[in-house]
Amino acid sequence: xxxxxxxxxxRPNTSxxxxxxxxxxVVYNTSRGPLTALHSFDMDVAYGEFVAVLGPSGCxxxxxxxxxxxxxxxxxxxxxxxxRRINGPRSDVGIVFQQxxxxxxxxxxxxxxxxxxxxxxxxADYQRDADELLDLVGxxxxxxxxxxxxxxxxxxxxxxxxxxxxxxxxxxxDEPFAALDAMTRERMTIETQSIWSQTRKTVVFIxxxxxxxxxxxxxxxVMTKRPGTKLMELKVxxxxxxxxxxxxxxxxxxxxxxxxxxxxxxxKPSETGQS
Length: 275
Description:
Layout: E1 17-30, E2 33-46, E3 50-54, H1 61-69, E4 76-81, E5 84-85, E6 93-96, H2 108-112, H3 114-118, H4 127-136, H5 152-164, E7 170-174, H6 182-199, E8 202-207, H7 210-216, E9 219-223, E10 230-235, H8 250-266
Parallel strand pairs: 3-8, 3-9, 6-7, 7-8
Antiparallel strand pairs: 1-2, 1-4, 4-5, 9-10
Helix pairs in contact: 4-5, 7-8
């Protein structure tokens, strides 16, 4: 599939939104009739902003990510990135998946360079970038290792480096820590903040975890049950850098509780507790 490279180049006026979604609706045609996954969804993300999208299972978060990545067309509304309409896969978007999906026969560094080969770019020009990204994610000494020789958390860090190698305008992270154990997930949350602080990429982070969203984000966007639309958004005023002690602060707990109350009001009793 050919990528649209026209999204790259000089950054537009940073007073404008990097990502803008206006009245997005997506309707799937199923064997049982039309199914509306998203309905009139609006969201702006500024350049360099870290936005977490939080919502219950089945609310359309994955559909939203597919729209933003250019893998799915909207039924109504418009989606733009850097002022250009999203109408197909774009080379200025990076994606970190739930599973790192590394190629087992390739080394860590070769896996980081996969998007470069996929886009037909000269791989030699990105060797140094790959080394620097592996240093950034704490894997500078593991470039020649195979994925099977790494832990789950280390593999996911390779996935983050791979998502950044082509210098995207926007980085999408689709519940990237969902498959990790609790301690590794906590550590990866801290490391993700550190990586973002150094790169200042525009990030949309999909998650089910309220504490994860509050810890990482500048702003949390909450979605309703399907069909998903924006229920509310919450600015996170906690200073950075954040650390484990941040999670023990009353302000952190108050923000988490505010989001939990929102879900208690939105969801039926049998569906609560998805934090």
